[in-house]
Amino acid sequence: MIYEFIATITAGFGMAGIAMIIRHLTKFAGISTPKWLIPIFAAIGMLGFQIHQEYNWQQQQIDRLPEQVKVVKTVEGQVWYRPWSYLKPQVIRFMAVETGKPLSPDINPTTEDIRGSNIYLFERRMSTKIIPQLVNCQQPAITSLTGSTPLTTANFQQLQWQLLAADDEIVQVVCQ
Fold first, then answer.
1. Model's pTM, two decimal places?
2. Which segments of the chain are extended strands (E)?
């Protein structure tokens, strides 16, 4: 976040520098430009950079993800104090899932194909949330692993499973 702040200030100074060049060049040509041109250019540079970041933060996060992590859902939105979002809605948050790893046979007493995976929840200017999950690939269902106790056969029997559709993207990514 500090790097984005520094980049925003730098964009403002860069555009203010362009305005100063324009003022000096027009002064040599005998034309007088208004003094307010410099702060207007600085504001345009800073606002332009922030708008650029609002639309590109998702791709910057995706580029940092390992190859086995795939995006399964995005949420776009419009906000009244960002009028440009009405022209093109921006991604507010997205969810990514990593390819699942099979559970060891001593934890999974059933014959079903159950895989462990992590779901990553990304939101603009918020820290990433990682939620460990188990996914049943034969009978599509999912459960969250909560708590600090390690998964054992006894814990496994008490898990609460939520059914998923067979074509759900989470199942497709985890069970590939």
1. 0.82
2. 69-77, 90-98, 101-102, 114-123, 129-136, 141-144, 162-163
